[in-house]
Structures are given as structure tokens and as C-alpha cells.
Amino acid sequence: MSDNNTKNEVLLKVENLKMHFPIYRGVFQRQVGAVHAVDGVSFDVKRGETLGLVGESGCGKSTTGRAILQLYTPTAGNVFFDGTDLVSLKREEMRWMRREMQMIFQDPYASLNPRMTVGEIVAEPLAVHNVATGKEIQERVMHLLNLVGLNAGFAGRYPHEFSGGQRQRIGVARALALQPSFIICDEPISALDVSIQAQVVNLLEELQEQFNLTYLFIAHDLSMVRHISKRVAVMYLGVIMELANRDDLYLEPLHPYTQALLSAVPIPDPVADASRKRVILEGDVPSPVNPPSGCRFRTRCPIADKICAEARPEFREVKSGHFVACHMVS
Amino acid sequence: MSDILLDVKGLETQFKTPEGYVHAVNGVSFNLKEGETLGVVGESGCGKSVTMLSVLRLIASPPGKIVAGEAFFSGTDLLKMSTEEIRHVRGAQMAMIFQDPMTSLNPVLTIGRQLEEPLMLHLGMTKQQAQTRAAELLSMVGIPNAKDRLSDYPHQYSGGMRQRVMIAMALSCNPQILIADEPTTALDVTIQAQIMDLVKRLRNELGMAIIWITHDLGVVAGLAQRVLVMYGGFIIEESTVIDLFANPSHPYTIGLIGSLPRVDGKQQGRLFSIEGQPPVLYQKPQSCPFAPRCKWVMDRCWKENPSLDPISDEHRVACWVDVKTGRSR
Prior knowledge:
The complex is a heterodimer of chains A (330) and B (329).
Chain A: H1 3-8, E1 10-25, E2 30-46, E3 50-54, H2 61-68, E4 76-81, E5 84-85, H3 91-97, E6 101-104, H4 118-128, H5 134-147, H6 164-176, E7 182-186, H7 194-211, E8 214-219, H8 222-228, E9 231-236, E10 239-245, H9 246-251, H10 256-264, H11 270-274, H12 306-310, E11 316-319, E12 322-324
Parallel strand pairs in A: 3-8, 3-9, 6-7, 7-8
Antiparallel strand pairs in A: 1-2, 1-4, 4-5, 9-10, 10-12, 11-12
Chain B: E1 4-17, E2 20-33, E3 37-41, H1 48-55, E4 64-73, E5 76-77, H2 83-89, E6 94-97, H3 101-104, H4 111-123, H5 127-140, H6 146-149, H7 159-171, E7 177-181, H8 189-206, E8 209-214, H9 217-223, E9 226-231, E10 234-240, H10 241-246, H11 251-258, E11 309-312, E12 315-317, E13 321-322, E14 327-328
Parallel strand pairs in B: 3-8, 3-9, 6-7, 7-8
Antiparallel strand pairs in B: 1-2, 1-4, 4-5, 9-10, 10-12, 11-12, 13-14
Helix pairs in contact in B: 4-5, 5-7, 7-8
């Protein structure tokens, strides 16, 4: 593969993905509604790039990640990975596909089995997928631990003997065990202290260069997403509001939600912070059980008009590679 | 303006655990001036919360114990007060808000009842007066239909609104000092911006002094006038907020600022990362607690713990190395 080819090749294509969780009530457990966690999301991830997916809690960013890996069965929509539609795959076929796509979880305390040693945790995917046996497994585990900056001699220890940052490294080693091409990082650093966050992010970047990995980086920390991503998608209440190249999105945000979100992030610089224009949003995020009609953001939007309540804005390309869902953007 | 409201000297707090004593706070001295906002930054386990909880005598004993120090508040030592006396200070003159508004509100009492309690207890108001004042307080912190929402329970409020209620409750008796322990950490950024805006407005209206504990340097930059940076149970740097960011002088502070990517650009290549882990404090550090992770480390750092010494008028640092020259101070 030439370098040019790999740069623009679409690895993952998500089309109109919907994930609704039914709500049951009463003696007969009738369905009385649904949580519209993800409600029609479309985007591409190109091979070798990092796509950042940002939004506030409850906006559906983690659900999107899980629905892509078919950890939930999507309500509607398609997910193409390297040309294969994952939604139509049978269980066994999907299990096979998962070798190519792995996940790093948010909570390094909950995502590692406390009764397994670190060696067993990292070796498990190798054994489950029969890619190595016996002594070869041990060698691979040692290699993986070294790769993520852990002493290979720690393979016999249990997760509780490690700090949060080290545990997250174990999670990274486990995700890398099957040599996947695509990794979903679901808030991999938000449970870590500031000085440890930088260690883990640097590790993820080094591994990406080394193995040409493709990341979907889910986070609420807009500063970190700016640092690590090539392109960024902003979600609000189950819908992508804006998607663009990193610099376009951060320097010239078009959607009023993106503008408000960016202006709300505190900057660690008192001089720059004092001279900044701030947009402070009123109120809270509405419930995804009864999302607002038309545009999801209109109830908090400073520039909402009549049309915003009537029609759902189309997610359209307004500049090359810059997509926005807003009636007010020309 | 520069009247000292709270003066803490040599505070030390330990916790007894099955593995031994944890030396959480190891001799911390600072003061708080009238009307100023003091930011306290540091990572988990650096002792920032324990320091403030000790000052308010909210450390559960056992296992916790304040082993040394003084904390003068309007002429009296809070650490020597009787339980009865400190109860009149807490809530009335010094109030605290916590990180998680859900666990600090009582789920089975209405918001109104919880707001009225301190008013009747500390200010001697009647039920009627307290109810009126509670409604005023709720609208002061920006909750719409305040009067009707007094009869709601905490679960009927969103996270941001609960934190507003906590602020209303803390300010109900017009305290001179408000201690805020990571009050926006559990909130989304847009809600955090709302709360910070609210606190700035109330600070101007009411003029109380604020101690704001956080791990987020961005929050400190936007809110505080003066900052304490803590590490391993010590204050390792103290400065005005402008000078701290313009001229960070402790290797830990430099690392912390360097490890943050910025949303407003200033893109660097790899992030600066501080290698290694924060110390485990089973022994009181005799040498510099940051030495194992410091890239400027010298022989002396392994032998003696530096004291917090001035490098300019309002800037103090606990470090043997002058990082500008890389040589000993």
C-alpha cells in the first residue's frame, strides 16, 4: 500500500445509526417509550486517522462507540468496516471481526477482572481467538507489556497492585493483543490525574505511529481531543451537530452549540482567559426520552428561530469537509 | 483588603490505616485575606481536601488525627475549640460545598427543609422567615420558580441545579469564608461555566473570601487571585495567579502546566509528561517528595526537604533548584 492510498481510504463508515433503548412499564411490561440515545448519526473514519467524538454526558457518544462494535444491536442504520456491513453479520462472523476492532474503556478499575493476573488479562484475547498457544502466548504478553511501558516482570501481579495510569496501560496492552487496526478509546483518560493523562495520551500516539492504528477517540475533554484528533465530531442529544477538520472546528466553529461548548472550556492561562468572549448556555440538556422537535439544540440555542422547532436541520457539508446541522448557518 | 481572615500554621494530619499511618498533610502554612479567592491545586491524594477539612475539623477521628498546627480565625484557634464552639463557626461563618451534590444533599428531605435548617439553627429565624429567605436564596442562585421548587426533593433537580442549591445553602448565613471542594468536577463544561459565572457574581455581591480546591488549572486561572500548589502533603508553590502561570518555578508546577493541551490552540508536539507516580505517604517525606519524578533533581534533593521560601514579593517556592539556571538556589 502506498502512503497516498492509506491516507484517504475509509476504514469505518457509519450510516444513519440509531440506538433506541425501550422503556417498559406496568404489569404487562408494555413499551411506553424509548430513550433516543443515538438518533441518526453518520460519519467516516479514515485509515490511520484519529476521529474525536466529543459531547457532554448523556449525548450518546459512548453508545455510538458500543453500537459500532455491535455490543448493542443498533435500532437502525449500517456500520461498514473495511467494506463489510457489521450489522448484517452473524454472531460468529462478528466475533471474528472483533479481532480487527478493539476498545479501551474509561474506568481502569472496573474494566480489569480483579481475580486475574495482568498476564492472564493480556493473554485472554490471544487464547480466546486461538492466535497463539503455550509458550508463544507468554512471549507475546511480555512483548505487549514492554510495548505499553510496563515491566514484563509484573505479569504475575493483580490489577489492585497498580495505579490508575498503569491499569490503563494494561487495558491498552489487552486491546493491542490481537493486532487490531481500529481501536475505540472510550474516555480513556478521564479517570486519571492530570500528570498521568499526558503519559497515556503520549503512549496512544506513539502506538498509532508504530502500528498505523485508527482511533475513534470518545471524550468530553475538548482540549485533549484537540490535541489528539485529526478530525472532530460534536454530538448533542444523540445527533452530530458539527464535524470538521480539527483546526477548522476549533478556530471557526459554525454551530452555536460548538461555539458555546468551546467558550465554556477553562483555559489554563489567566491572561488569555480574561480576554475571552464567553457564551454561557442557559438551562440543562433536555431528556433523550422526549427530545425537542426539530433541532435538538433549539431549547438552549441563543439564535433559534421558528424553523428550528419545525424541521430537523439537515447534516450538510457547508465547506469542504466541514459538516453542520443548523438552519441558521448559510 | 489585606486583613488576614484565616491564618493556618504548621498543620499536620494523619490517618491510621491497617498498613500504617498515612501522612496526608505534612506541615502546611497559609493565610486567606478578606474577600480574596484562593485556589488550591494538586492531584488526588496531595492533601488539598484534607487540609481544608482539618481546618473545619471535619476529619473523622479515628482514623484521622490532626497532630500539629494552628488555624486562627478572627483571633481564635479553630483547632483548639470545643465541639460546641466549632459548630457555631461551621455553616455560620465558614461554609463548605462538596464535589458531589447528590451525596451531600439528604434525599428524603425537601430542598426547602434543608435550606431552612441552617437559617433557623444559626440565625434563629422562625419557620416563616426561614421559608421566605430560602426562596430568596434559591432565586439568588438562579433557580426559576424558586418558591414552588422548595417543596421538591433533590432527585427532581439536575446536577447543575443541585450544585446551585449547595451554594445557596452554604451562603445562607452570610459566611465570611466559603470553602469549595471541587464543586464543578462532576459537572459538564457548559454547566461548569454556569456555576463559575454564578460564583463570580455572588463574590462581587456578597464579598466573601473563597477557597477553591480543584485539580483543574483552567478553573483556577479563571477564578482565583492567589494559588497554592500542593504535592505529597506539602505546599510546594504559592503565588498570585498571574505570576504562577507566567513564571511557574517548581518543577512540578511546570510539568503540570506543560502536560495540559489547550483548547485555544498553542499546539505543541507531544505533551510534556511527568514520569512516575505520586508518592505513597506511609512515611513523612524527609527529602523533597517530588525528587523521584523531577528532571532537575540534585544530590541535595534526596537529603533535605526544601522549605517554602520567597523568590519574589508574592511568590514562594519549595525547591532547591532554580529551574531557570538549573543550578542550586
